[in-house]
Amino acid sequence: MTTLEFQTDGQFEEVPFSGQIIFTDAGTVSVQAQNPDTSAADTAYTVQGYEAFYGDAEIDADAGTFSVDVESAAARDLIGQTLTRNYEVTDDTLVLTPIDPAEGWRVTYDRAAR
């Protein structure tokens, strides 16, 4: 993860998260991210500043979206949900945004060297 940004008053502001997303050949996705601010309030995706979930994924390249059927998660309310995200790939950079723009976030990842 290179940046996580949240929208406030129409402007994106960076939040100091670190993390990774892994897409496997078996068709699964795994996400882990951490907020270094241990006093940050939990969100629907985080527990004590930590986000982690995985599940089977389906990519719709024509729509520019992918969906994850959450099998396990640190925030247990996510289990059983399907999370759908917009994606854009440019060279070795992946940018994810929510399907609902009202959620107001954007996350950017750079491909790790193999």
Describe this structure in words.
The protein is mostly beta strands. It has no helices and nine strands. The protein has strands at 3-8, 11-15, 18-23, 28-34, 50-60, 65-73, 82-90, 93-98, 105-110. Strands 2-1-9-8-7-6-5-4-3 form a nine-stranded antiparallel beta sheet, with no helix packed on it. The chain starts with a strand and ends with a strand.
Topology, pairings included?
Elements: E1 3-8, E2 11-15, E3 18-23, E4 28-34, E5 50-60, E6 65-73, E7 82-90, E8 93-98, E9 105-110
Radius of gyration using CA atoms only:
14 Å
Q: Count every beta strand, where a strand is a DSSP E run of 2 or more residues.
A: 9
Strand order of the largest sheet: 2-1-9-8-7-6-5-4-3
Q: What is the residue-averaged pLDDT?
A: 94
Primary descriptors:
114 residues, single chain, mainly beta, globular
Concise overview:
This protein has 114 residues and is mostly beta strands. It has no helices and nine strands.
